[in-house]
Amino acid sequence: MRAFRLPIIAAMGALALSGCMHTSAPVAAAQPPVDLDAVAYSQPPNSARAGVVASPSGIADSGGALSALRKSFAVAQQRSYAPAPANYAVAPMAAVNDAAYRLDAGDKLRVVVYGQDGITNTYALDAGGSITMPLIGAVPARGRTTAGLAAEISARLRHGFIREPSVAVEIEVYRPFFILGEVAAPGQYPYVPNMSVESAVAIAGGFSPRARRDRVTLTHSDDAGSMRTVVPLGTALSPGDTVVVGERWF
Known about the structure:
- Among the domains are: about 110-175, wza like fold, CATH 3.30.1950.10; about 175-245, Outer membrane lipoprotein wza fold like (Roll).
- The chain is flat and about 150 Å long.
- By secondary structure, the chain is α+β, with helices and mostly antiparallel strands.
- A hairpin with a 7-residue loop joins strand 3 and strand 4.
- The strands form four sheets. A five-stranded mixed beta sheet has the order 9-8-12-10-11, covered by helices on one side. A three-stranded antiparallel beta sheet has the order 4-3-7, with helices on one face.
- It is built from five helices and twelve strands.
C-alpha cells in the first residue's frame, strides 16, 4: 500500500511544480510620459483622449456638442458687447468762403509779396475801404475778393517797381458783427468763421430775462443791398451782420 501511494504523491508534486512554472508574473503597466509643463502648472498630463475632450467643468465632451455650444455663446456675447456704430445727424452750416468773400472796412489782411520783405505786411481796410501799401499807395479793396485784390496789387507793382511780382492775399481778421437788443452784453464782437445767430447770442452773454427767443432779426448787406428779416437761431452769420433780439411783453 505504501508502495502504491508514493507514485501518486510524486505525480501530484510534479503537476503542482509544472503549474507554478507556467504562472505568468505580473506585468507593469506602461506609465504615460511625464509632462513638465503639466507638472509646473498643475495640469493633468494627456487629458485629451481620442474622441473625448475634457471641458472646463470636468464633463467629458465626446461628440463636440459642448464645444459648439461654448463657441456659439462666445460669439453671441461678443455681438452683445460690440458697440453700435454712431449715427449722428449734423446740420450743415454755411461757411464763409474766402474766395467769394467781399472785403469791406474793418477787415484785416495779410499781403505777401514774395521776395519783398519791405512790402509784405498786415494791412487793415480803412473807413474808405482801401489799404495803403509802400510804393503803390492806396489800393481800393472794398467789394473785391482776396484774389481780385492780389491781382490789382500785382498790376500796380508791375508798372515800374517789380518785374514779375508774386502776390498772395489772405484774411487775417474778419470785420466784426453787431448784436443788439435783449442780450446780456450788446455791442460789437470779432467775427469767427462758421458762426450762427445762436453762437453770436452766446458770445454776447446769452439772452436777457425779457428776451423773445423766437423773434431774432438779422440785417445783412451785400452788393444787392441790405436785407432785414426774422430768422431762426441756427441761421449762419456773416461778417458785418447785425443781430437784434426782440423783447417780450409778458
